[in-house]
């Protein structure tokens, strides 16, 4: 009798166990996934996406520019910050975790607005509401073994005849053999993503090092190169007409920076347009409308935050090299600087 009762109890346990297994949810996979995209015709960058699938409970979008978003309804309007062709992917997920994906390609046109400019049409000192100065020598923290002492004097930075002149002078000044100027928009203007366009004529003379560039606004808290650096244009007088476009970040900086060059004509006798186009996915460098270097941007790099502008003319240093003995003075002339977004 005991054996019979034990057998009946074991059978009941098996029935209960089978019953529990039978109540577990059945895995379901999203099916019939569709993805539609409607691109706005007003050049705003807005695109409305509609994803739909049977058995889907949520949708994960990859907008093709490094931006991702989870959308429970499957319907979302995303504003692209820059013109381009993008490959968009959506992943539909069921309540049990199964997935299905669909991809589409879109082309977006985005008209940009002018958000900052200086045409340098006045006379005298640059606009103090837009520009400040770094004062001193490399011992102040910018290094590179440069030879100049930066000042805020009119001798070194002044507007006349429709251009800004940043002028380097051979003169004894506070222990340095040269003076010059370094202007910046730090704490006055900064931006994230867009296009910078500068029309400039570069100084002649071996040892000159003019630059148009940008630093991350968080430099005071994270220091360099963690803040990131974007060099829109650099030129060394010893390599006449060779234009450099470069980025610096913790994985690539100093002599290992990510840069490219382009040789042009008459860099020191004619004005040329130096441009940088910056998005969440790329940083492009151009001269007179021609792209000569592209850097892939990503969330792992420090180029997804606000940056401020810098214009300076250095003498010598690790990039500029030795200064020719006959050098007395030279200037970088800037016709305008414009930022679009």
Helix and strand element order: HEEEEEEEEEEEEEEEEHEEEEEEEHE
* Helicity, as a percent range: under 10%
Instruction: Tell me which CATH architecture of the largest domain applies here.
Output: Sandwich
- Biggest β-sheet: count, sense, barrel? 10 strands, mixed
The level-1 CATH class of the largest domain: Mainly Beta
How does the helix and strand content classify structurally? Answer: mainly beta
Q: What is the number of independent domains?
A: 2
CATH fold name of the largest domain: Jelly Rolls
The mean pLDDT is 92
Give the helix tally: 3
Q: So what's the overall shape? A: elongated
What is the end-to-end distance?
88 Å
**Number of separate strands:** 24
Question: Which consecutive residue ranges, at least 5 long each, have pLDDT under 50?
Answer: 4-8, 12-16
Instruction: Using the CA coordinates, give the radius of gyration.
Output: 29 Å
What keywords describe this structure?
single chain, 341 residues, mainly beta, Immunoglobulin-like, Jelly Rolls
Describe the structure.
The chain has 341 residues and is mainly beta. It has two domains: 31-108, Sandwich (Immunoglobulin-like), CATH 2.60.40; 114-340, Jelly Rolls. Helices cover 9% and strands 48% of the residues. It is built from three helices and 24 strands. The protein has helices at residues 2-23, 219-222, 317-320; strands at residues 31-39, 46-54, 58-62, 68-71, 75-79, 84-93, 99-108, 114-118, 132-133, 148-150, 157-160, 163-173, 176-180, 182-184, 194-201, 208-216, 229-234, 242-248, 258-263, 272-278, 282-287, 290-296, 307-315, 329-340. The strands form four sheets. Strands 8, 10, 11, 12, 13, 15, 20, 21, 22 and 24 form a ten-stranded mixed sheet that branches. It has a seven-stranded antiparallel sheet with strand order 9-14-23-16-17-18-19. A four-stranded antiparallel sheet has the order 4-3-6-7, with no helix packed on it. The radius of gyration is 29 Å and the shape is elongated. It starts with a helix and ends with a strand. The relative contact order is 0.15. Mean pLDDT is 92; it is low at 4-8 and 12-16.
């Amino acid at each position: 009798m005991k054996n019979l009762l034990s057998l009946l109890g074991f059978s009941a346990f098996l029935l209960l166990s089978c019953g529990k297994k039978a109540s577990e949810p059945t895995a379901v996979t999203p099916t019939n996934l569709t993805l539609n995209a409607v691109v706005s015709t007003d050049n705003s960058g807005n695109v409305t996406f509609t994803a739909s699938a049977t058995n889907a409970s949520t949708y994960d979008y990859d907008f093709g520019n490094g931006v991702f978003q989870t959308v429970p309804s499957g319907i979302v309007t995303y504003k692209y910050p820059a013109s381009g062709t993008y490959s968009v992917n959506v992943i539909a997920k069921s309540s049990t975790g199964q997935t299905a994906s669909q991809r589409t390609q879109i082309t977006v046109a985005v008209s940009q607005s002018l958000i900052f400019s200086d045409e340098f049409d006045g006379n005298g000192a640059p606009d103090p509401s837009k520009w400040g100065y770094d004062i001193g020598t490399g011992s102040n923290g910018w290094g590179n073994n440069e030879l100049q002492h930066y000042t805020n004097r009119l001798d070194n930075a002044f507007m006349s005849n429709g251009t800004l002149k940043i002028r380097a002078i051979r003169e004894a000044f506070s222990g340095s053999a040269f003076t010059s100027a370094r202007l910046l928009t730090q704490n006055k203007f900064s931006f994230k993503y867009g296009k910078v366009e500068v029309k400039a004529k570069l100084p002649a003379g071996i040892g000159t090092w003019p630059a148009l560039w940008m630093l991350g606004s968080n430099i005071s808290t994270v220091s360099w190169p963690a803040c990131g650096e974007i060099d829109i244009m650099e030129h060394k007088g010893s390599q006449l007409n060779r234009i450099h476009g470069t980025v610096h970040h913790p994985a690539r900086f100093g002599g290992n920076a990510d840069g490219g060059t382009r040789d042009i004509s008459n860099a020191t006798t004619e004005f040329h347009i130096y441009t940088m186009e910056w998005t969440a996915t790329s940083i492009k460098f151009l001269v007179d409308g021609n792209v000569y270097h592209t850097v892939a941007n990503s969330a792992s790099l420090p180029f997804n935050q606000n940056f401020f502008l810098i214009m300076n003319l250095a003498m010598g240093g690790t990039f500029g090299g030795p200064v020719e003995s006959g050098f007395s003075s030279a200037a970088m002339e800037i016709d305008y600087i414009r930022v679009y977004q």
